[in-house]
Specification:
Order of helices and strands: EHEHEHEH
Distance between the termini: 48 Å
Structural class: alpha/beta
Number of helices: 4
Helix content: 25-40%
Strand content: 15-25%
Radius of gyration: 16 Å
Number of domains: 1
CATH topology: Rossmann fold
Strand order of the largest sheet: 2-1-3-4
Number of strands: 4
């Protein structure tokens, strides 16, 4: 962000963006559930930018999306790993990408959240979903 770029003005004054981060796939349908989450978030917090990003095979990637958000004046970027567990991508690749973003954009806070599937509320939601399935269906 340059000195002439004002921060994104949001009703709550946060200047905070939400970035969903997933693996990516050659099949564009793979991203539909993540896009549905982004759409719902945009409804819930219309004053915040919400962006889907991908490690590989799809665009935008995390650095490209975050660079654009910072150029628009975003001051805080909350990165939500859309993984059920903390495998190599969440444990190694993503922290490396975030570290590079922090070095490049020292005036912006990059907050890396835990993987989706490790949140107790998500574990409960998946458990409740499993119990609603008719017997013999997956």
């Amino acid at each position: 962000m340059t000195a002439s770029t004002p921060p994104i003005q949001t009703p709550d004054g946060s200047g905070t963006a939400i970035v969903l981060f997933g693996h990516g796939s050659r099949d564009p349908r793979w991203a539909e559930p993540m896009e549905a989450v982004a759409t719902r978030l945009r409804t819930l917090v219309p004053h915040r930018p919400v962006v889907c990003t991908y490690l590989e095979l799809m665009t935008p990637d995390l650095p490209t999306a975050c660079d654009a958000l910072v150029a628009q004046g975003t001051r805080t970027v909350e990165i939500l790993p859309m993984f059920l567990g903390t495998g190599r991508h969440a444990r190694e690749d993503l922290p490396e990408l975030v570290a590079a973003l922090r070095q490049r954009h020292t005036d912006t806070a990059f907050v890396l959240r835990t993987a989706l599937g490790e949140d107790p509320a998500m574990i409960e939601a998946i458990s409740q979903w499993a119990l609603r399935l008719p017997s013999g269906q997956a």
